[in-house]
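Researcher: Please generate the 3D structure of the following complex. Treat every line as part of one assembly.
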Amino acid sequence: MSDTFSLTPVELARFFWRQLTSMRTALILLLLLVIMSIPGSVLPQQNTDAFGVSQWIENSPELGSILLALGFFNVFSSFWFSGTYLLLLISLVGCIVPRSFQHYRATRSQPPAAPANFERLTMHDSIESIAPYTEIFNDVAVGLKKKNWRVRTDLTNKYVAAEKGYLREVGNLAFHLAVVGIILSVGIGVLFSYRGQMLVREGTAVASTPTQFTSLTFGTAVSVADLPAVTVKLNKFTAEFERGEVQRGAARVFIADVTVQTLTETKDVVIEVNKPLLVEGSKWFLVGHGYAPRVQVKNQLGEVIFSDSVIMLPRDGNFSSEGAIKLPNGENGLGFITAFLPTADFTGQPISIFPSPDNPVLLLSAWQGDLGLDSGVPQNVFSLDVSELDRIGIVSLRPGDVWQLPKNLGSVEFIGVERFVTFDVASSPGAAPALGFSILAIIGLIVGLYVRSRRIWIKQLPDGIYQIGALSRSDQPGLDNDVALVKALCSAAKETN
Amino acid sequence: MDAALISNLSVLISSIFLTLATYVSFIRLIGSKNPNRFAKISYSLTLVSTIVLAIGVIARGVAADRAPWGNMYEYAIAGTLAVLFVYLIIARRQDISGIAVFVLMPTLLSLGLAQTVLYIPVADLVPALKSGWLVIHVASTIIAGGGFSLGFAFAVGQLIAAKSKSKLAEKLPTESQLELLSYRVSAWGFAVWTFAVLAGAIWAEEAWGRFWGWDPKETWALITWIAYAAYLHARVTVGWRGGKAAAIAIVGYLTYLFNFFGVNILFDGLHSYGGL
Ligand code: HEM
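Model: Done. Output below.
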């Protein structure tokens, strides 16, 4: 009786372990993972779309807060998702490790004895022969051995047993162990990885120090001290866009010419979208770009108080871009809300109609007053808080244009169009072992699926009849060839007689 | 004539032949005096359709001067070609004419959809898609998809054949025949899919600096992978063999389809290159 209540703790533990490592549990856990992954792709996720998450919660606060608490906006690190795959991992190890030992033993022992009833096997057949059974068995055994079968001849019980295709199980085991390896490499690799983003204007250099990143995250096992000492200068960025009718404006070429400096060397390299820079264990990926118009501001005395390129963040596919210039000076501070249109169109609202700078226009709205930069509250550098400011005026400039500010406040010149690029800087040390295990998994899978594992027996019945039975442990065809081979070996014995 | 035009014409001609093949195999299924003859005609028509479609796909590649699977339209025609190709290989080796309609009808549907809803003229690719890994990654998803599609058709046939009382079921191959066919192509699809996911991860690492980022496309690729792993297990698990396993194969295929249509259209991820 399987009454769980009367089991001792050890028996109970064994019962659960057997349940956990059963095929059925593995199957159900796999199906659970399928279902659990779906909200992770349907709902916005914190790690990929934090903005979407906050919007979602804003739109439906009640459901949103419940889902948030339950981890639905962070599915792949939620307790229920991690719990399920951890259980699967344990089940996998608990299933595969004993099977590995079992299979190892099987490869060192004899093929199993002939079953009593051949009718139950995948295939069976019989053949008549007048040759003595010793001779037939010998010929079959020798013939099969030549073809790399493992053979056992039992002359007392009058049968030959043979087995082939041990590699199938090896492949299956390798595949499952490799899956464990992939999960572990990815999981442990995350602890040792870091990732950051920085914006670099043409003609300027950035160093991989924390202050220069616009965002930077570390795995638990690494810190700022693990950042490499690298400086990257963007010499020139080239972008080209589709000018044909089909997919007009789609990106075609992005190339960043940079100079990389490490403690030991300086070199010029090119970074393209699919060709990251690999330096000191970190990879630099070209992930975005935009415009940084060069602007010069003079005060009423004609002294230059600002002259630099200004990063403006693209807002649409045609690079209508926005930014801000802040020149704090107590009560007399100047602030500009800027919009840049690479190919300006003024038929309606001013927008850009093509991503290349074919008709570049810089829109400026100027404000005066205390910019509040000294208040200590961190500000977004790409926007200007105008609530405390006085409006001076608004203007649109083309390269070379100068705007004399009203009230004799000075002048602003739009000098020319320059660009910036966005680099992702990342190190993910789990990638290499994960790749290795993935390759092992694929090889194991192919071997496990396509190597045929089969057993064959021939036994003597009365009246010179020999029965042949074959068992396939894979769903690949070809067992009939094996039976035919054994029959041929028997007939060979008959003919030589 | 330029290559783009040749391509479009070929796809059109191919779908005409495919329509005929579908029709003939439908007749073969619902009852004709001479099923063998109809089976042969259907096979020949499908063969012609496949060859013409192959020309269409190649010409598209020549016209675009790159591998012809850079947007949903190209993916659909190349994917259809993969399905037809695998179907012909199987049909050459064994008689599966009873199930031909189950394969040809959806194939025709996808070819029709490609030419109407999904069609876009030849164009170059955005830089992120210009990579040797694109060729390998997308090609392998197409090939795996060919296996999955056939596995789906066979699994549906298997479920119908299992209800052996229906008249239709008698004309189909047997349940166990269909089960084995479905398994073979699905398992093959699974192996190629595994490789496709790996190639995609390598490409993502190169292009975006992370080999896995839970982008909707990646998530659904994993969902499909797990679903088919579950199917392979179900086939050998007591109590799940047969119908239940076939149902999982069907669910797996739906997740694959969703990744193509649903994710390209509904979600705004890094992979939304669909071009719709
Ligand atoms: C992440 C989890 C898992 C994945 C992705 C997975 C995947 C697969 C795949 C693809 C196959 C068929 C390939 C082949 O025959 O070589 C397979 C077979 C098998 N798996 Fe798993 N598996 C997982 C977990 C498990 C667990 C936990 C168990 C044990 C309970 C298990 C036991 C088996 C067995 C016994 C087979 C052989 C079936 C046969 O003889 O055809 N697997 N698995």
